[in-house]
């Protein structure tokens, strides 16, 4: 089973569909009930068993409980995919410390919450994936907190991978080096293909970051 955290209509939805098409059951954690229900119906039509929960992933208690319920229902979590980030259009001179910390709590801190909750249901061969961004290296000053989030979550993935490697569980951040679009190399479906490829690689020569440049 794959648990998709921050499930919605973009890359996370495409990731859910990609894994469902490959035979995975899917658990969705997101904030919009209508979007989750629509995505769940699509996944069921593809033959997947689907569960979904509405939760704020910055609420540690609620997010942990939701992930635990998913794990207890199936007895295992094979893949945990983390997608959330906050886009706040403020430059460094207008962004407040409180706003920055709120955004980092979503785009970075919530990964700790869901991984810690999922760990009890993950075993050797389990994988953690994160939707990364070139904003980690080339931030746009007009949305300064996004680059901080993406750099921070990538760094955290490196630490998670080193920590979990002895248990046969690996983590990867897929750095999307382009702007998402409806056509071309950076559609959500193409990015989802890249995430699928990164997650299903052989462990020999594993890296905790994989760039996707289209």
TrEMBL record:
It comes from Nocardioides flavus (ex Wang et al. 2016). This is NADP-dependent 3-hydroxy acid dehydrogenase YdfG. CDD domains: SDR_c (cd05233). PANTHER family: OS08G0476300 PROTEIN, OXIDOREDUCTASE, SHORT CHAIN DEHYDROGENASE/REDUCTASE FAMILY (AFU_ORTHOLOGUE AFUA_5G14000). InterPro entries: NAD(P)-bd_dom_sf, SDR_fam. It comes from the Bacteria.
């Amino acid at each position: 089973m794959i648990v998709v955290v921050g499930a919605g209509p973009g890359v996370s939805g495409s990731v859910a569909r990609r894994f469902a098409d490959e035979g995975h059951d899917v658990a969705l954690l997101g904030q919009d009930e209508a979007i989750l229900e629509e995505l769940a119906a699509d996944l069921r039509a593809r033959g997947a068993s689907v569960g979904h929960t509405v939760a704020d992933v910055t609420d540690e208690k609620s997010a942990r409980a939701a992930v635990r319920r998913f794990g207890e229902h199936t007895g295992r979590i094979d893949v945990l995919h983390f997608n959330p980030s906050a886009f706040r259009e403020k430059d460094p001179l207008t962004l407040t410390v409180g706003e920055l910390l709120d955004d980092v709590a979503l785009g970075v801190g919530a990964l700790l919450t869901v991984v810690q909750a999922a760990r009890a249901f993950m075993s050797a061969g389990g994988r953690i994936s994160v939707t990364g961004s070139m904003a980690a290296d080339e931030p746009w000053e007009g949305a300064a907190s996004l680059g901080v989030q993406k750099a921070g979550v990538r760094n955290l993935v490196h630490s998670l991978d080193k920590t979990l490697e002895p248990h046969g569980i690996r983590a990867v951040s897929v750095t999307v080096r382009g702007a998402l679009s409806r056509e071309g190399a950076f559609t959500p479906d193409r990015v989802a293909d890249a995430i699928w490829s990164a997650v299903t690689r052989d462990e020999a020569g594993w890296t905790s970051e994989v760039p996707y440049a289209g």
